[in-house]
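Predict structure. Chain length: 147.
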Amino acid sequence: MSWEERSLMSFRLEFVSLAMAEGANVRASCRRFGISAKTGYKWIARYRATGEAGLSDRSRRPRSSPRETSAELAELVVSLRGKHPAWGGRKLKRRLEDLGHAEVPSANTITEILRRSGPLDGPGANEPQFAWEAWTCGKRARANATP
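Prediction complete.
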């Protein structure tokens, strides 16, 4: 028995043509093709509505993001970080709340805004912030070796 290679579109098209035939049992066709009845009926409805193009995969990206952070607030976060480069997401969140902004995103969201805009990846981003970190985070050639 040789292996048969088929594209996803040809698989779906074959299913739809068999399931839409006169006197065909859709659920039996679904079992034969190894798909759920819900998926089978969805493919048939899409084929009837738009033809063969309806059988292709659709994007799963949401059409809108109603809770997305506004561009003005993102710019404010980046400018505040520019004034205070040592501040992270938690301190920037607290400062925005102290300044009286109504809808302040979470500290993680603020950190993601900074990561997308680039200030977290600039020069000195991985440098130790405190003097004691410089000698405790030294690189060693092997485990338990002295620096």
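Summary: The chain has a mean pLDDT of 85.
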